[in-house]
Amino acid sequence: MTEYLNETVFTWGGVPLKFGAGAVDEIGHDLGQLGADRVLVVTDPGIAEAGIAQRVADAATAAGLTVGIYDRVHVEPTDTSFAEAVEFAGQSEWDGFIGVGGGSSIDTAKAINLLTTYPGELHDYLNKPIGEGKAPPGPLKPLVAVPTTAGTGAESTPVCVLDMLSLKVKTGISHPRLRPSLAVVDPLLTLGLPPEVTAASGMDVLCHALESYTAKPYDAFPRHTPETRVAYCGSNPISDLWAEKAMSLLGGAFRRAVLTGGDLAARTDMMMAATFAGMGFGNAGVHIPHACGYPIAGMVRDYVPSGYPDAPLVPHGQSVSLTAPAAFRFTFPTDPARHQRAARLLAPDTTPHDDPREQLPSVLAALMRDIGIPSGLGEVGYGKSDIDGLVDGAMKQQRLLAVAPRPVGADDLAAIFLDSFENW
Ligand SMILES: NC(=O)c1ccc[n+]([C@@H]2O[C@H](COP(=O)([O-])OP(=O)(O)OC[C@H]3O[C@@H](n4cnc5c(N)ncnc54)[C@H](O)[C@@H]3O)[C@@H](O)[C@H]2O)c1
Ligand SMILES: [Fe+2]
Does residue 81's CB lie within 6 angstroms of at least one atom of ligand 1? Predict the structure, then answer.
């Protein structure tokens, strides 16, 4: 057998998908096909208030299913909020779940599915070194994910993310068995999404696309065996296709979706961009901006964003975008052509910056300013004295930093944070 030093194989996994206006009305039929009869809808109070969860529950009930609703998901879930949700779900027998909402609701549904199907505690399954990193012992129950943000891509990824309150750190569970059984993506559900959530969750999509597109190429990693091959395998020709298409959709629709929320064409393109970016990063991986975003969100003090529940939090999409201009300035030398191409896809009608290295950072800063993202770390409550803590938190995300296209040490991260206090 030929001996290879570098990886020659990449993998691509996905979730069956139903996409389009009105798709959610068919959910009863879809759950029936998956063999679920008693299903729990998992959602947060804001989505319940918007009537979206009830609409999904009604569609399932009309198809003859028995439906319960848990509407107390915590926005940006925590170990405590997961425990409450699992406790509620454990009081009845369910043979399927529907996660209706943004990443917070879909991730909570994933955790409920795992922790009510098999014995064991959250800690057993959390990624190492924070948890034991155990694999789910067997297949999970059917889970249909219905995203209402465009968005995290949680409907197609094998991960769920949570905030460990005691440790002030975000971590998650990642295993292919966590992938939903079906994603039902209906752009009509996003017409009432507040502009601030449209902006933040759209920046999450953008970072997914950009980070997976600029990730270390799969064939620059050492050769794996089938057993050791990781879920995030680095950029590869198939993930690249999804990322490029997601970026050109964002280039056409993002500002319109934020500024004129009821524009169905823009909402549809944003939903498609989120789905496509999910199909890309869910395999290739994300790197520096996401690694930095975790401590930015986890160490929050008193920043309360508008458009979100009235509590201190840095929404995921804001937290990952704040260091993106600086991070892509840092990764530029690894593949200048790719960074320049990304800038053109995102801003096809803009005259490129004279300095090639500044093209992508300047496109990002202009977009973030136009859609109302905070200008940098200062605006979300951090000072220069927080840099050491932020660096420590980002250094814990080695699973993500391993996918960066060049080695990233603590000094590099400190420079990136320092460069991110004011992006314009
Ligand atoms: N599993 C993954 O692959 C993955 C990837 C990235 C992020 N995440 C996680 O996802 C979470 C963030 O998810 P998100 O950005 O999708 O937002 P979210 O689920 O936190 O929701 C944000 C806010 O928007 C409201 N909202 C959502 N949809 C609405 C609608 N259609 N109409 C009116 N209001 C609506 C919600 O009520 C909530 O107040 C974070 O916890 C993040 O860590 C998970
Ligand atoms: Fe994300």
Answer: no
Determine the Cα–Cα distance for residues 92 and 94; give it in Å rounded to an integer.
6
Is the Cα torsion angle 105, 278, 390, 315 positive or negative in sign? negative
Q: What is the pLDDT of residues 77-103, one digit of tens each?
A: 999 999 999 999 999 999 999 999 999
The arrangement of secondary structure in 195-418, i.e. its CATH architecture, is: Up-down Bundle (1.20)
- Take residue 314 and report the two structure tokens written for it: 């840095």
Ligand 1 contact, 149 CB (< 6 A)? yes
Question: Candidates 54, 70, 104: which one to mutate for ligand 1, based on the most atoms within 8 Å of Cβ?
Answer: 104
Q: Is 90 in the pocket of ligand 1 (CB under 6 A)?
A: no
Enumerate residues with CB within 5 Å of ligand 2 (an ion).
Answer: 204
Q: Tell me if 111 sits within 8 A of 82, measured CB to CB.
A: yes
Domain edges within the chain: 22-185, 195-418
DSSP per residue, 390-418? HHHHHHT-HHHHTTSSS---HHHHHHHHH
What is the value of pTM for the model shown?
0.95
Query: Thinking of the domain 22-185, which architecture would CATH place it in?
Result: 3-Layer(aba) Sandwich (3.40)
